[in-house]
Amino acid sequence: MDDIRGINEECGVFGIWGHERASELTYIALHSMQHRGQEGAGIVCSNNDYLFGARGTGLLTNALSNEQLLSLKGFPHAIGHVRYAAKGSSELSNVQPFLFKSSRGDLGICHNGNLVNALNVRAALEDDGAIFQTTSDAEILAHLIRRSKQSTHKERVKSALKQVKGAFSYLVMQEHALTVAMDDHGVRPLMLGELDGCYCVASETCAFDAIGANYIRDVEPGELITINDDGIEFDRYSDIDNPNMCSMEYIYFARADSNFRGHSTYRIRKALGRKLAESLGHIEADIVIGVPDSSLAAANGVAEVLHIPQEQGLIKNRYVGRTFIDKGQEARERKVRMKLSTVKDIVEGKRVIVIDDSIVRGTTSKYIVKALRDAGALEVHMGVASPPLIHPCFYGVDVSTHAEIIASQKSISEICEEIGADTLTYMEVEDMHDVYRSFGSRGECAACFTGNYPIEIIDNLLPQQKDLKTKGV
Ligand code: SF4
């Protein structure tokens, strides 16, 4: 997974209870979810008496030293986090899991997603005397839990969760228990698994595969799960049951080998490609090329339906780290050039259908079309295995303003002209939903395509975001 399209996931989480190799397994699981965040990583462990943690910035291998990992050895319970700084700065103080000490005991906490009432809740807490050390939403939940007057930890977590709105999966660790919660719209993925009789949770099932754990099931929207030495207890903190899984998880974020409800992301993406192919049938082409890696499955689906050979006409360089300038358009363009190159021998003299999973700013698409033409392609037809991405995301994905998104500014024919393709074909929103339904989905968020936000955005909006429609909770 890469960030050259300018759209990034916020985080990945993992937790395991009661395993003698808890910290090592957490490290391996986080490594498998590195695509969900590369700006920081951390692990917090419990030995039933106290919590202890380590964290750092950058990729997991840089974030945690051997000495830090050795210091976590022997703790049987652990939670871990890889972070993309969609919200809040990328400095160390914002790297999760956070570890809090109080007279009620220790609290470790990490999350994936984004609260849509964070500013309001934070302001109310500050007015009440709270002092924040980070800009993260995870710290907000810690304050709410600590201030709750409920008599049990579980009830305190429940009362805290009822006060926050948004897209999230939270892992909350005490000395004696791990509490897991999914927002009541189920926007961000969270899976339950088992290894050697111990329960574990992860943002993606690829983490279970990495440690040899068995997938049990997806955590349900509004569900609250408590895991401790006595076993596992299932509960709910919300009566709302309105699933709105992030469509972009299927399209782009999740690893191709990660499963949703028992179906691999690869299969879902291939089905999106097969559906898209129905709109590409009129194009006469010699080869189908997928943009590596997340679009290869969709390209495979297109090629199968159109009976056109799928070729590897684009190669991705996996070893590009940071460019000298890390932010902004110049950095993005440089990164695209460093990351993608064409196989001239495959492309030369061919009419090409190139399949991408999404277009955000158009930088990557423009480069790809030009690179294919420079390599001798006679025609370049672009197919996108998702609808036009028009609106920003407030649920934990780093596309925050209309100005950043090309389909917000231009029509499809204008985008086609801008990127220099012969034709440009997107997927219809309803076709996308049809594909997800065929894989057992009960509902998806498609707000970045439609502007219909399933969770009301409560925090004050930027002026350019005022036109957003909301369906309400
Ligand atoms: S707005 Fe788009 S990226 Fe954000 S949660 Fe919804 S589908 Fe996912």
Main beta sheet strand tally, sense and closure: 7 strands, antiparallel
Strand order of the largest sheet: 3-2-4-1-10-9-11
Shape: elongated
Bound molecules: iron/sulfur cluster
CATH architecture assignment of the largest domain: 4-Layer Sandwich
Percentage beta strand: 25-35%
Task: Enter the CATH topology name of the largest domain.
Answer: Glutamine Phosphoribosylpyrophosphate, subunit 1, domain 1
Number of strands: 26
**N-C termini distance:** 32 Å
Q: Which ranges are low-confidence, i.e. pLDDT below 50, for 5 or more consecutive residues?
A: 1-5, 462-473
Give the C-alpha Rg: 22 Å
CATH class identity of the largest domain: Alpha Beta
Query: What is the total domain count?
Result: 2
Please estimate the helix content: 25-40%
Please name the fourth-level CATH homologous superfamily of the largest domain. Answer: Aminohydrolase, N-terminal nucleophile (Ntn) domain
Q: If you average the pLDDT, what whole number results? A: 90
SS-based structural class? alpha+beta
Number of helices: 17
Protein name: Amidophosphoribosyltransferase
Active site: 11
Keywords: 4Fe-4S, Glutamine amidotransferase, Glycosyltransferase, Iron, Iron-sulfur, Magnesium, Metal-binding, Purine biosynthesis, Transferase
Catalytic activity: 5-phospho-beta-D-ribosylamine + L-glutamate + diphosphate = 5-phospho-alpha-D-ribose 1-diphosphate + L-glutamine + H2O
